[in-house]
Amino acid sequence: MNWQTLAATLFPTGHQITEQDCFLSGSAQVGTATVSVIGTTEHTPIGVEIALAQAKAVLQTVREHPGRAIVILVDTAGQRLRFRDEMLGINSTMAHLGKCLDLARRQGHVVVGLVYDQALSGGFITSGLMADDCYALPDSSIRVMGLPAMARITKVPLERLTELAKDNPVFAPGPANYWRMGGLTAIWEGDLAQQLAQAIADADPLDRRTALGAARGGRKMAQIVVQSVLQSKPASAVTLSELDRAGTT
Question: Residues 20, 40: contact at Cβ < 8 Å?
Fold first, then answer.
């Protein structure tokens, strides 16, 4: 689905989204409310320019529209793998984007992500996965690393990884596996406009991904490890941030 069709479906009462060099930005109507929209299209990799443009759009919303919800439309091939971007500090600019989204949340902005086409690697981690809740369309493609690349990095034979991926969602791509791991709150089908409005209404800044992954059988140990670490520390040493991330408050 191209972004124009998606926008018309998500925002049937109107939107003012524009595209410039594969970067999406603007505003849209969700019910009676106006939301800010940022995102990417054409599977574009996230380079320094787009990371900073997205961060600027988030900060502009925080500064000029207090409390306005932010919707992130995700279609990216990950971070741009160029020497120029590395020298310009792509790691820092992507971290800056993640921090801006965290700031928006702390200032009371609901942040909802939607993977509508492709979501890979760092481009997904610092966008959709930084949202309060992230959703996906059923035909979207989500993965951190393809199995052939994973085999090269880990030195585990591709055949073995392929076999593991049949039963373990950590090794397998696709929205269904990310739902099982808790990375996605839900996979949307049907009335997308209604589901977006409900997602904004239900958004919770509390990170529940490890708990969801445990309940859905996709991440069996993450929540156990988090609880064990928290329980092993004196109560005075456990920070509010740790409790939030653990999903215990």
Answer: no
